[in-house]
Specification:
about 375 residues; alpha/beta; 9 helices; 11 strands; about 40% helix; globular
Length: about 375
């Protein structure tokens, strides 16, 4: 595989952490042994004192390691990486602060991805071998533009507030978008030597992080919708927004209704409402997910959605990927250490809570 230059630092740090953990275990064992077999000799008294010292100091050393040494590993590597990059590059390099931030973020992301033995907990109906979450291939130079400030802010297992109305989802969400299933339509177009531009429908685009992710994967024709434009306006740089990416400040159902009305007058409608990929960034009922998959996907298309585990139950979802026939290709209740849970679909009458009308200001068109 690829050579990972961060690996020596990681191994060295983990080895030191392992030694400290072993020290704690030995101290505990010595203490337990002394309790089981007490002795009044001076030698035993000295040993007991040493053991007590080890028992007391070892947890502090282990805590100090995880607080101090691990961040130092990431900082040390980022400094080395920055120096090597600056020496080898003939173009203007990024600032030291940006380099450290990017390197540290990649390092921590890699640690987080290694923290779980199984990256995805797959539903028992779907074999674990059926999913591959390899990252998307590096995009062409023309597709590398970054147009949202939200991109790169993602954190594993944690959502980040993007605006009053929406959050930036945990990084596990965007890893799932980059899965081999969502890349499949692009791969099929390449195999067919098709000149058609891959299209995506980004539903609940928020701050544009999912839109950015799809664009970097190769979906350069994107219809992004969100009933609230606040997060988009605050994070997306319209001057850097590619021509193929269009944002509509309406809910998905209103968007589709309006576009279908335009189909007879040259607007985006009819066959033009077919997409290679549809990504939902809020929870939906199974019936809606299947309906969109059957009516709006190209034959080789894929739909990714957090689907309620029970109809109209908005407190727990499972990630599901559908094909154009409405068949479930993959499902997961948890992704890494993150349990799948999204904001509810505001267009549904059963939507409840602070993310729903009337608390969030959403008004459904009649």
């Amino acid at each position: 595989g690829d050579v990972n230059p961060e690996r020596p630092l990681y191994i060295a740090g983990e080895s030191f952490g392992g030694i400290l953990a072993l020290e704690v275990a030995l101290a505990i064992e010595k203490r337990n042994k002394h309790i089981r077999s007490p002795s009044s000799s001076s030698t035993t008294t000295t040993t007991e004192a040493t053991t007590q010292f080890q028992f007391i100091i070892s947890p502090f050393l282990l805590t100090a390691y995880y607080i101090c040494i691990l961040p130092f590993q990431a900082h040390a590597w980022s400094a080395i990486h920055s120096l090597l990059t600056n020496a080898a590059s003939t173009s203007t390099p990024p600032s030291n602060e940006d380099s450290r931030s990017i390197s540290r973020r990649r390092f921590v992301s890699r640690i987080a991805s290694l923290s779980s033995t199984i990256p995805l907990i797959i539903n028992t109906e779907i074999p674990s071998s059926s999913i591959s979450h390899a990252a998307a291939a590096p995009p062409d130079d023309d597709n590398e533009v970054i147009f949202t400030a939200g991109y790169g802010r993602e954190e594993y297992t944690n959502s980040i507030t993007a605006s009053r109305d929406t959050n930036i989802s945990p990084k596990e969400v965007y890893d799932s978008i980059q899965s081999s299933y969502i890349l499949y339509p692009i791969e099929q177009l390449r195999k067919q030597n098709s000149t058609r531009v891959p299209r995506a429908f980004d539903v609940g685009a928020g701050a544009g992080v999912s839109t950015q992710t799809l664009y970097l994967m190769g979906y350069t024709d994107i219809e992004a919708v969100d009933w609230s434009s606040k997060a988009w306006d605050e994070n997306v740089d319209e001057e850097r927004l590619p021509k193929g990416v269009k944002f509509h400040p309406v809910d998905d159902e209103s968007f589709l209704e309006e576009e279908r009305k335009k189909s007879g007058s040259g607007g985006v409608g009819g066959s033009n409402l077919l997409f290679d990929v549809i990504v939902f960034n809020f929870s939906v009922n199974e019936s809606k997910a299947r309906s969109y998959a059957k009516t709006m996907l190209q034959p080789e298309g894929r739909l990714l959605a957090p689907v309620n585990i029970q109809s109209d139950y908005w407190l727990k979802q499972a990630f599901k990927i559908y094909d154009s026939q409405g068949n479930v290709l993959w499902t997961a209740n948890e992704v890494g250490a993150w349990s799948v849970q999204f904001q509810p679909d505001v267009t549904q009458e059963t939507c409840q809570g602070i993310w729903c009308a009337p608390y969030n200001g959403f008004k459904k068109k009649r």
